[in-house]
Amino acid sequence: MATQTSNATKPALLFVPDISGFTRFVQATEISHSRHIIEELLEKIIEANDLGLEISEVEGDAILFSISDRPAQQALGLWREHSPAV
Question: Which of 25, 61, 68, 82 might form a disulfide with 12, Cβ 3.0–4.6 angstroms?
Answer without folding.
Answer: 68
